[in-house]
Amino acid sequence: MNEDFMNCRAVGVVRSPFKERGDAPSQGRHTDAVSIIDVFPEYQEGLDGLKAGDDLFILCWFDRSDRTVLKTRRRGSENEPLRGVFSTRSPARPNPIALTLVKLVEVTDGTLRVRGLEALDNTPVLDIKPYSEGIDTPRET
Q1: pTM of the predicted model, to two decimals?
Q2: Are 65 and 14 in contact (CB under 8 A)?
Q3: Which domains, and CATH codes, for the chain?
Q4: Cα–Cα distance between 35 and 125 in angstroms, integer?
């Protein structure tokens, strides 16, 4: 690849009960809190076919994360040795793209109500993809 930069556009923004880093759980599955994803008008047509009860992957840009980190420890593991950031789920990484599996509670007029999203309030949403058991479960070795 000859480009050092890629262009992405946010398709929406998170409205979350988590206002500061300390408010958010380490992973979305550690919360039952409901967050709102406001999808921008020009992308709302892409929501067609979604329904309450769907499992969705939400890809967010963790815009408040440290992008200089290459070694870290898992939260609550201060006694463990440092690990490469690509072997962790840390939000601090060169490209702070978050991937969270959520449950769609409701879809209404360009707004998704989801359960299990750890993103902070006003986090940009890069993409929304459906979970597919046939595609997203690990291969057997």
Answers
A1: 0.88
A2: no
A3: 14-131 (2.40.30.70)
A4: 12
